[in-house]
Design brief:
Strand 7 and strand 8 form a beta hairpin. This protein has a domain at 81-232: L,D-transpeptidase catalytic domain-like. Strands 1-4-3-2-11-6-7-8-10 form a nine-stranded mixed beta sheet. It has a two-stranded parallel sheet with strand order 5-9. By secondary structure, the protein is mainly beta. It has three helices and eleven strands. Pathway: Cell wall biogenesis; peptidoglycan biosynthesis. InterPro entries: LD-transpeptidase, LD_TPept_cat_dom, TAT_signal, Transpep_catalytic_dom. This is L,D-transpeptidase. It holds the Pfam family YkuD.
Length: 235
């Protein structure tokens, strides 16, 4: 799900919070919360090319101090403005509430009423590890435990210390929220998860899972019940 030194792994590199999560670890997967205080950026009211001022983006992606593990602000200067959360026109036959993942363009959409969608910037699977098809949210987790799979431990022995699980927290690769994707009653090992790595948005770095900025993931998670349909488009 997350990253390894080869930047991603196959389906086994995903997580399962109830059975023990699994993921692929990269130098960025510990999500050190490096985002700086946005007030120091002196962003003022300068507009981005995507119509949202940097001040507005700073407010949208500000700190979340009320969480179990307080989430720092996103350094929005490290995110291409086209990946900021926004409402867009989106014509589809899918019902409102459906989640559509567009890995080719690094977006996740939540279908709304009236031909619109909430659009989030995302990181997605790297080449060779992307998948497509229909799934559904079979389970939801907050601050999930992460456990590397045996395949990853063999590939990266330094992760063996987490063989019994890495507790939830800011350093945990799964972050604050996780949507676990299922097909026909079986867990696919793919997830939509929270990332504190601003520079990962708009990149293909995972083993097929999809990451949103923590603030975006909380926004999506709170509006997504179990059994929600998820459509993953071809890359």
């Amino acid at each position: 799900m997350i990253w390894d030194s080869g930047r991603a792994g196959a389906g086994a590199g995903h997580e399962d919070a109830s059975r023990g999560a699994s993921g692929l670890l990269h130098r960025r997967s510990f999500l050190l919360g490096s985002a700086a205080g946005l007030g120091a950026l002196g962003l003022g009211g300068c507009a981005t090319s995507d119509g949202m001022s940097l001040a507005e983006a700073s407010a949208l992606y500000g700190p979340v101090p009320t969480e179990k593990f307080p989430i720092p602000a996103v350094d929005v200067s490290k995110v291409d403005p086209k990946y900021y959360r926004r409402t867009v026109r989106y014509d589809t036959k899918e019902a409102p509430g459906t989640i559509v993942v567009d890995p080719k363009n690094y977006y996740v959409y939540r279908i709304e009423e009236g031909g619109t969608a909430t659009r989030y910037g995302a990181n997605v699977g790297r080449d060779g590890f992307r998948w497509s098809g229909d799934a559904y949210v079979g389970r939801k987790s907050e601050w999930a435990t992460w456990t590397p799979p045996k395949e990853m431990i063999r590939r990266q022995p330094e992760t063996a210390k987490y063989a019994r699980g890495m507790p939830g927290g800011l350093d945990n690769p799964l972050g604050a929220r996780t949507l676990h994707l299922y097909q026909n009653g079986a867990y696919t090992l793919y997830t939509i998860y929270a990332s504190s790595d601003a520079e990962s948005i708009g990149s293909g770095i995972t083993s097929g899972c999809v990451g949103l900025l923590s603030q975006d993931m909380i926004h999506l998670y709170d509006r997504t019940p179990v059994k929600t349909k998820v459509v993953v488009l071809p890359a």
